[in-house]
Amino acid sequence: MLSTQRRGSIFGKRLRGWRNSQMVTALLEIDKEGKQKGENMKVFLRVLILVALGLAFFSFYITRDGEFFTPKGEGEVNLNSGTYEAFPLPDYARELIGQNYKSYFIEVEPGLKVHVLEIGEGYPFFLMHGNPTSGFLYRKVVENLPLDKVRVILPTSLGLGFSSKIPASMHTADNHIRWINTVLKELELSELIYAGQDWGGPIGMGALALSPNLLKGAVLLNTGWNAPTEEMDLSPAHATVKTPIVGEMIIEVFFSIFERLKGVQGDPNSWTPEIAELYGKPVYDSGNYKAPLAMMRMVPDGPNHPSVPAILKIEQYIQTLNIPAEIVWGMNDPILGKGLSAMQTNFPNAPVTKTAAGHFLQEEVPEEISEALMRVYSKVVE
Questions:
Q1: How far is Cα of residue 79 from the mean position of the Cα atoms in its chain?
Q2: Strands 150-155 and 123-128: what pairing?
Q3: In 3-state terms, what secondary structure has residue 152?
């Protein structure tokens, strides 16, 4: 028999062996867990890198400048000023205006075509729309005009409607003004009455400032051209979308601006799905829908904004005018409704028609606008 001391020694060795075995097992488990954590970390880092690359690509994609899109017409439209490329309207557009309109392009630069709608014979009415609509914005106004006495000309700014689409970087106040002035020159107009709303105000009036003898009367509709003297934002929406990526996400990714414009109307029901399609479908179908956001960013938010020099030139031109003018204003416009007093400063003698309409008042109070145009017309031709 083993002595008590010997048995204790053997037990101690076994115990130490067991402990060492347990320690080794524990260390192996720790090493295994460490390796697993390391593998998990590698997977996490790979996923993180892929997500970062995806976000970088997505940010690059949505902030891209956009591509040129040149629409193609078919046939010709003959006017006294020349022959122009005809553009047959798609059914969804034609059915809203009927068959009597001429639809054609004026090439303002190589490959850049301004779409023009025209109807009537007589004294020229040159009516400019706002962002993001098109010349179709005045279709209800036209219904109340004597088309045997007036020739209504409805151009659409580049990037919108059926006009050519351009990179976002080309959307500047100077460019748009120059292009619309080219339309005026191409049509060889000697005089006209003008109406403008939203960006149609500065663009149209800026174009007329380059041909200062054309303008004989005006109707002003929820627009403005007073350059800011301090930092400001036209609206909360304009303040939000001027931030890179954020603006693209809101205007071009998450929402359709054309469907949400009922929110700027006095009567939201005045902005129907058919109207949203009329303005939005030509833009989306082109593959380049940069214009609405780019033109929102064209709005000056301070004295150092790139649009300010062009606006200052318009201010100077306005001061030289002595013409019959009227103001028709949508008082429920959340963007420019409060701008009436500034417009009255520009045209202090102009009668004012206040309405319950919103921003795109042509969709809500067309009769009030056509009546103002005809009152101005009467003063011009008398």
A1: 31
A2: parallel
A3: strand
Please state the domain extents for the chain.
Answer: 76-381
Contacts by 370-375, CB closer than 8 A, 24 or more apart: 370/141, 370/142, 370/143, 370/144, 370/145, 371/144, 372/219, 372/326, 372/328, 373/125, 373/141, 373/145, 373/193, 373/195, 373/219, 374/145, 374/146, 375/326, 375/351
Contact 360, 337 (CB under 8 A): no
225, 318 in Cβ contact below 8 A? yes
Backbone angles phi, psi at 358, to 5 degrees: -100, -145
Q: For 327-350, b where at least 16 C-beta lie within 10 A, e where not — what string?
A: bbbbebbbbbbebbeebeebbeeb
Q: Helix 200-209 and helix 173-186: axis angle, to 10°?
A: 60
- What pLDDT digit, counting tens, does each position of 83-114 carry? 999 999 999 999 999 999 999 999 999 999 99
**Residue 372 CA to its chain's centroid (Å):** 27
Q: What is this structure's pTM?
A: 0.85
Q: Are 59 and 101 in contact (CB under 8 A)?
A: no
Tens digit of each residue's pLDDT (9 = 90 or more) over 249-308: 887 877 889 999 999 999 999 999 999 999 999 999 999 999 999 999 999 999 999 999
Contacts 24+ apart (CB under 8 A), 51-60: 59/245
Say if residue 100 is exposed, middle or buried (CB neighbours under 10 Å; 0-12, 13-18, 19+): exposed
DSSP 17-56: HHHHHHHHHHHHHHHHHHHHHHHHHHHHHHHHHHHHHHHH
Fold of 76-381: Rossmann fold (3.40.50)
Query: What tokens were used for 48?
Result: 């993180």
- Residues 169 and 150: their CA atoms lie apart, in Å, by 37
